[in-house]
Amino acid sequence: MRRLVPLLLCLLLLSSCAARSPLSPVTAPEDVTIPAPQSPATTQETATLWFRFDQEPLLAPEERSLDLSPTKAYELTLLEALLAGPSASASELQGLFPQGTRVLATTRQGRTLFVTLSRQIMNRYPDETEGVDTAESRLRRLLAMQSIAATVTENCDVDTVIVLVEQSDAVTDSLRLKESYYLTGSDAPAAPLKRDESLLLTPTTTLSTILQCWQDRDFARLYRYVARTDAATGQQRPQEAEFIAQMEGLPHLTQWAVSGGSVSGDRATLSALMHCADGGTASETAGVFRLMRERGLWKIEYSQLSSRKEAAP
Question: Is the model's pLDDT at 137 over the cut of 50?
Fold first, then answer.
């Protein structure tokens, strides 16, 4: 009997091994491709930016296509484009900010936009002399701030802009831009910026400037507002010296007033009441002027002026 016990144990072990199924082969998991993180999709939108027109005390618009990111405020992208300056093709426009000036932040509160600029905004322009404040220096700063106000109000649903300035080591009770920026000598906070239509080359402002040049007999300045190509005749405008000589034949304009007007596509039609005096004879008439948009800027065609040379309006 004792011999049977070991024998039975061996049989039980063998039967259990035979009943057990062979081990299934272990298969390696398939390669899993983890998608790379994608940047948020950008979109494009057309915006109107305002820059200085030539050496004039006025701002003119340029339409630009902006790349917008959902991770960046629209106002920040808009003002970064403004501070970067006009595009190379806009040869008659000029940027207005000291080199290195950046937009650090924008915050909207109600109908006011707060804009924080880097401290370089307080720097002198390269051609300015320290301690010498000129009318041109003050004009540049006025136009720089108005370019912000005009660009923001043109593209955003706000009424005013308050400019803040980055502070370095100076101790101050406010980040607000001060009146001293405009070279006034005052340390009072600057007033909120509002859109000033008198500084923008809209059709009305453009015609008003043209008539003022006519009244002043400043035909060299008037030349800047004459279209390069005359759509009415297909001819190029004369060279500046010839243009000035031709304009000497215009009647002497003593008073004028622009009234109303309409815009249709790239054309604007406006009326002006004009008083002229030539050879002791005074006359008054209502003139109609048609402006055309050339490279985004409102200009007058040469034929609109040359046709008025023969006699008083």
Answer: yes
